Amino acid sequence: MALLHLPLPAAELLLDPSFLSLVEAEHLLANLTAAVPWRHEPIRLFGREVMQPRLTAWYGDAGAAYAYSGLRLEPLPWLPELQLLRRQVEQATGTPFNSVLLNLYRSGQDSMGYHADDEPELGSEPVIASVTLGATRRFRLKPRPAAFAEATGLPAPLSLPLTSGSLLVMRGPTQRNWLHALPKTSQPVGPRLNLTFRWVRG
Description:
Elements lengths: L3 E3 L5 E5 L5 H14 L6 E4 L2 E4 L3 E6 L5 E3 L2 E3 L6 H14 L5 E7 L6 E4 L12 E7 L2 E7 L14 E5 L4 E5 L2 H4 E5 L9 E7 L4
Antiparallel strand pairs: 1-2, 2-13, 3-4, 5-8, 6-7, 8-15, 9-14, 10-13, 10-15, 11-12, 11-14
């Protein structure tokens, strides 16, 4: 299935719910969960240091370092599975990528708070290509009030159930106008691995 545009004001959001087959996604989830040297590190939020509620890893070309929330990541060399997936994502999106952030959500209690991928090294309108493996979780977007200050009202938030093997692409002004998150859930869910491909400027 090709990427489909989702209706979201002042944004460009695309989704392919079956980018990878369920068998491909399951195989990739098992291999990466075992092969990746996962890190559990503190980040700085609102002036204090807290542990990230998930495990992370950063892969990329040499020199593709990335910094967010007081954390600086130096890229690990590409694994063969990640190289192959990068080529598939590049072909689907028509966009080159030199790095990928892996987030492993071990259970429904692991999460990601509202934020925008708007660090300077990503550029003014970054393309973020997100592949989901494993458990279905709800991905949420909400408008940044300042971006719609001249509008008569804020657009409605969006909630997307991202399934295993799906590809979500955020590009254009999305990061400037919207925040996104992966909230906790009390529902019993298995692990979810999210891979966000991006281009980091040197």
